[in-house]
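Standup, Tuesday
Yesterday: got the pipeline producing structure tokens again.
Today: sanity-check two examples.
Blockers: none.

Example 1:
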Amino acid sequence: MASGISAKHGLLTTKCSVFHSLQRKILPHAICIQRPTEVKCLRASTNSTIESQHNEKYCIDIVRSRDYDGFVSSLLLPEDARRSSLALRAFNVELAQVKDSVSQKTIGLMRMQFWKTTVEEIYRDDPPVQPVSAELWRAVKKHYLTKRWMLRIISEREKDMEDRAYRNLQELEAYSDNTQSSLLYLLLESLGVKDVHADHAASHIGKAQGIVMCLRATPYNSSRRKVYLPMDICMLHRASQEDFIRGSREQNVRDVVYDIASQAHVHLEHARSFSKNIPVSAFPAFLQTVVLEDYLQRVRRVDFDVFHPSLQKRNPLIPIQLYIRSWKKTY
């Protein structure tokens, strides 16, 4: 009897060991077997991570291809603000390219309305399924960004759909302040900076940036028979729109460029006059001054010939100059 029990016990032991062996082969991770609800949560988490990475990559790619200087500047921001900066710049790029990417003003206005609605939905925690929108929502939640600045950028871009030249330099400055300066205010918020002197500097830098961008875009716009330079300055120097469309390099055209570039330089100097009163943590938001200064120096070297071929090439030293300025903590 004892021997029978012993034999059965041995057989049971053998069967158990074989069963466990097979179980290990068939389910090598049997210890991780999860309930259906747990599997769903795991899949949702994985999908969410993949989607988040896709959204971030989309913003990186669009900023790198459309705003390379802004892309490099963003890389030099503190890690905590870097991703939000790229989201804000991607938002700015999306708005900036509407004017050139539509054939009818009505379509452009519809796209602007989409972004107005998107911003409202972001602040209701219900962003549309779109990469830039998702990244903007993430930035808003993280840094408590001000909605007014985003809406101001959209509204000003919407007005710009009129597709006409600026009547005077003040109108160009107002456009630059409402678009470029507003973007800088948002960048300051992403850096956790709330300072009146930093805001004043941002206002002047934004105006300088808008003016420089208008000058840089002149050869491209002229090739499409469009001129956006302030009419009052063109009239002052008796330079017609046709002069720019023909790519004239006469002295009166250079005088127009000189006056406009000089105003950008004045704004840069004003912005730098606040540097001693601004917290160092705000300086990374102003790295774009390196790019503005570089263009103003180069246009001066070619005697304000805005159509000079050298101005159409990107300065390969800009990334290094940006890094040095970032390291020195100046702007």
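Example 2:
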Amino acid sequence: MASTIISSSPVTNSDRSKRRKKKKSAAAAAAAQQFKQAEGSSSHARWRTESQQQIYSSKLIQALSQVQLNPSSPSAPCRGRAVREAADRALAVSARGRSRWSRAILTSRIKLKFRKQQRRHQIKQQQRIVSAAGGGGGGISRARKPRVSVLRLRGKSLPAVQRKVRLLGRLVPGCKKEPLPVILEEATDYIAALEMQVRAMTALADLLSGSNQASAGSSG
């Protein structure tokens, strides 16, 4: 009888330890979820503060001062693209890499440089092949048929909700292949940051237009 009691006691102790571990892990997961929600709500509210707008404005002015516009081709699209990229980089720096979209913006510039280098290397290789083949005298160039991507065909067959989620994931940087909860969290923070960006750029534009008018009035 005593042997049966002794043999059954380790089983009960192991069960109790497992239950305690499960309770601890559940409590830790709940605390982490609450902390994440509180951090997300605080980050969303942070973009609406005046101090954050001033921080972004100073970083925006620094980024715009480093923009180098080519005087030989002063086209409006090139200037607009350069200003937009500088404004987005300043916004990502203001986020301090805490969000997925800010990290995606900061790393996209490095990836773009790497792609340009790869393209140049491929063009040089193609030119070498053409020159080695003697310019392809008498060769007939065949028109390539347009290829239909399998992903496009799959995208057309998806339900409307999934198509909208995929579109939202493409609009938010770094969320192209993320699940819906991550996309919604990142989109909420990204929209709040963009609203602050619009306010800061509007205030900066008003300030510059007012200084230009004042200088024109003093010269006149």
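Quick observation on example 2: The radius of gyration is 29 Å. The helical segments are 2-46, 50-65, 76-95, 100-132, 150-157, 160-171, 180-219.
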